[in-house]
């Protein structure tokens, strides 16, 4: 009976401990990932991304109602910042109805990131 109780205690401790350890490991990977972001010059962006970037700098008009909403950085690929720091804007995708997967994320003035795959990867836009 004591052996069974001890086994359950070990299992319980493992269940409680593993998620915290996994989170810490994921956080470490995410923190180092943003330091390794690829860089893209404006000329390397698709023409639709260049159009979106210009609209952002001019304060609009924007093609979609959700353009300018807060980007929460749940993926933790971009550098960690307080909520409300980042905003997202749609980059039109030819042949796609709706918003598609392409976005530009803005941070501080002059800080822009491009994703062609809906936040899986980012490139810092270098002006």
**From the helix content, strand content and strand pairing, which structural class follows?**
alpha+beta
From the alpha carbons, calculate the radius of gyration and give it in angstroms. 20 Å
* Ends apart, CA distance between termini: 69 Å
Strand order of the largest sheet: 1-6-5-4-3-2
| Proportion of residues in helical segments | 25-40%
Spell out the helices and strands N to C. HEHEEEEE
Low-confidence stretches: 7-34
Strand content: 15-25%
The coarse silhouette is globular
For the record, the CATH architecture of the largest domain stands as Roll
The overall pLDDT average reads 81
**Count of helix runs:** 2
Largest sheet properties: 6 strands, mixed
Query: Number of DSSP strands?
Result: 6
Could you explain the architecture of this structure?
With 127 residues, the protein is an alpha+beta fold. The chain has two domains: 1-36; 38-126, Nuclear Transport Factor 2, Chain: A. 36% of the residues lie in helices and 17% in strands. The chain has helices spanning 2-35, 47-58, and strands at 38-41, 69-70, 87-90, 103-106, 112-115, 123-126. The chain has a six-stranded mixed β-sheet with strand order 1-6-5-4-3-2, covered by helices on one side. A hairpin with a 5-residue loop joins strand 4 (103-106) and strand 5 (112-115). The chain is globular and about 35 Å long.
